[in-house]
Amino acid sequence: MNPVKKSSLATLLAIVGLLAVFACETDSLDDAYRRIYLAKYAVDFPTSEEELHRCESNRVKTCLDLVAKATDGKRRLLAVEPNKALDRTLKTIVSSCPLEDSDQQELCLGAIVALYFFTEPELDARILRELMKAERTVLHKVFSPSMFGWYYNRPQPKGWIDAVSKLPPDDFPHDGKASVINAFGASKPAGLGDGARLLK
Amino acid sequence: MENFIILIGGPGTFKSCDPGHDKIWLNYFYPIQIAAEKDLYHKRAENVHWVVYEPAYSVRWLDDSEITFWEGAQEALSGKALHKVRKKAADNVISKGASSYVERIKNLARGYGITYKGINKPQEFWDYLASFPSKSISRVWYSGHATPGGLILQLTHNSECEASWTDQSTVLTLDIPKQTAIKDRFIADPNRPSKFYGCATADFASSWHVTFAVPSEGAKSSITFAGIFGAPDAVITRLETTPTPRGAPDWTKYP
User: Fold this and answer.
1) Sorting pLDDT into bands at 50, 70 and 90, what band is A19?
2) What is the pTM of this model?
3) Chain B residues within 8 Å of chain A (Cβ atoms)
4) What is the ipTM score, two decimals?
5) For chain B, what is the domain count?
């Protein structure tokens, strides 16, 4: 094979390889969001440490299977370099949340729950920056009236309180602006939010 | 006259991949119906209102009243009772002169002298409570699915067939404190607590008690509607006491 053809083939293989890696990572993260979604929206997911303990001590299969799946979702997410994982998570939120299709909603809500796992100050600052630019249909999901666990574990909650306070009330469903602001200022969820904190 | 409001959540659509949830359409309505029949409400001079989340029952009727060829074949091949039991339930409703689950519930309400109110959105539950005059609601009960986040009026399933819930069909616990404007509708009577029959309703009951200053009760853990058909006289106490695989319901009173 002549050197030009050889080098073209190598380039082509490298591109194919990169695309395959990207596709695998994307699929893996989509699966991660679908699994992390369970921590908030699966009916049989334990909602407190006490309930998790009940599931474990009584070996409740449905409950333990859900915890295992959601934990696997967390593991998949954390296996990706944090900046890349956050980039993908924010893109998923912005692209899936405006779509009413149930599959897209699952991705959207799973990605929002996944924000719980990005607590480094610079990543948190990026989340804040990107979400403040998002359209209202996205914010209506992000500021869901049933709340998310990540509101309570922000490294710099004051930045969130200040930014969220400046948003118009219409950006929050169910007149929920005050509740969301209060959540960012609270130290822990009062039994509400989601089960992301239970994932080891 | 005082008003006793009972919010009745609905079943989800039955999925053979999730036989553990809502095999029977009646699960959340039956305890309330049988309590009316057996006088288990222990009501005084109260008008009883059944507030029914109609979308759940309408969708379920469409699903149950006609079993598809595929569903029939699936049942025959698996040897499991997955679908015929639903068709039988729908046929039973027709044999009693109703053309849908919603109509059957309406007919029963009429028979018991109960006011029927159909709702299509969780917000309509709050609107209904707000429509009563001051000091006229003696208590509120709920029967259906629930999580600490709220009363799930209709179960759904995600892409992997796991039983799930959505904000859109849930009366959210966090919405209770926003209802202070209707606090004056309630009568605080220690002998007539508001009761929320669903899994993990304790947070909801606690918030209800704090916001409306009325005694309230709910479960800290799971409750089960299985077995309710075998003990009609004790249907309500069974919900409060029967253990599930997770343990006792841990029925809790506030205060």
Assistant:
1) low
2) 0.91
3) 20-21, 145, 147-150, 152, 155-156, 158-160, 162-167, 170, 172-175, 178, 199-200, 203, 220-221, 245-247
4) 0.91
5) 1
